[in-house]
């Protein structure tokens, strides 16, 4: 039972036992050329509106008064995670963001780059940030220890938060759907209604978690400036 349940997160396929399912990670790139090939429509205008909103918000958090590559990096990160979260809701499409191997690949290099930049260029600011203003002298060593630990676990918390939220919804939907063959007609209708509600919830989670990992990364970046 448990092996069949977690088989939906198996990155391997039956074709030569290779991890071909990871190719679904780049499926989001197929949507990008539509903005150049098709005339602007409501979906394109909505996507542009979202990107502009994110750009303005990230620009404030990053303390930039003009457009540069920093906001583009985080907007691209949001788009990448959002596409993978949404595509994982479709049948027979592998959810790559449900694996720590991908989420850690996103969060760990970002965190390392923030730490290296901060300690090399703004080391005084980094030291000041480790001790909040007004901390009693007797508590300063403990505050340094707590802030150090909180900084170290940041990439892990970013990765685990995204992975756990993607796994939880998929597991719940799989558990409910596996009981359908043993239910009566009335409970099958109730199960279908519950699955529809769960799908709406998972769609919201896919958007929210994309925004959360991006906004937290932006906040971590703003701390080293």
UniProtKB/TrEMBL annotation:
Transmembrane regions: 20-39, 72-93, 100-120
GO molecular function: proton-transporting ATP synthase activity, rotational mechanism
GO cellular component: mitochondrial inner membrane; proton-transporting ATP synthase complex
Localization: Membrane; Mitochondrion inner membrane
Origin: domain of life: Eukaryota
UniProt cross-references to Pfam families, sorted A to Z: ATP-synt_A (PF00119)
Membrane topology qualifier: Multi-pass membrane protein
Keyword Transport in annotation: yes
Cited Gene3D superfamilies: ATP synthase, F0 complex, subunit A (1.20.120.220)
Keyword terms, alphabetized: ATP synthesis, CF(0), Hydrogen ion transport, Ion transport, Membrane, Mitochondrion, Transmembrane, Transmembrane helix, Transport
Main location: membrane
Protein's job: Mitochondrial membrane ATP synthase (F(1)F(0) ATP synthase or Complex V) produces ATP from ADP in the presence of a proton gradient across the membrane which is generated by electron transport complexes of the respiratory chain. F-type ATPases consist of two structural domains, F(1) - containing the extramembraneous catalytic core and F(0) - containing the membrane proton channel, linked together by a central stalk and a peripheral stalk. During catalysis, ATP synthesis in the catalytic domain of F(1) is coupled via a rotary mechanism of the central stalk subunits to proton translocation.
Protein family membership: Belongs to the ATPase A chain family.
Classification via PANTHER family: ATP SYNTHASE SUBUNIT A (PTHR11410)
Protein name per its UniProtKB record: ATP synthase subunit a
Organism: Clanis bilineata
């Amino acid at each position: 039972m448990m092996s069949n349940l977690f088989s939906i997160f198996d990155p391997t396929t039956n074709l030569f036992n290779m991890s071909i399912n990871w190719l679904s990670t780049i499926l989001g790139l197929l949507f990008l050329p539509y903005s150049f090939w098709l005339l602007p429509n409501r979906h394109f205008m909505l996507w542009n509106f979202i990107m502009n909103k994110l750009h303005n918000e990230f620009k404030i958090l990053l303390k930039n008064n003009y457009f540069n590559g920093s906001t583009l990096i985080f907007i691209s990160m949001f788009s990448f995670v959002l596409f993978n979260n949404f595509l994982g809701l479709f049948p027979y499409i592998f959810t790559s963001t449900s694996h720590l191997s991908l989420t850690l690949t996103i969060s760990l290099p970002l965190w390392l780059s923030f730490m290296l930049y901060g300690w090399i260029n703004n080391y005084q600011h980094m030291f000041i940030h480790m001790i909040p203003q007004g901390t009693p002298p007797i508590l300063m060593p403990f505050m340094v220890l707590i802030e150090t630990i909180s900084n170290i676990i940041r990439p892990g918390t970013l990765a685990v938060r995204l992975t756990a939220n993607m796994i939880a919804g998929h597991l719940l939907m799989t558990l409910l759907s596996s009981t359908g063959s043993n239910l009566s007609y009335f409970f099958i209708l109730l199960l279908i209604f519950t699955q529809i509600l769960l799908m709406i919830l998972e769609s919201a989670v896919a958007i929210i978690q994309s925004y959360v990992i991006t906004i937290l990364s932006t906040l971590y970046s703003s701390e080293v400036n």
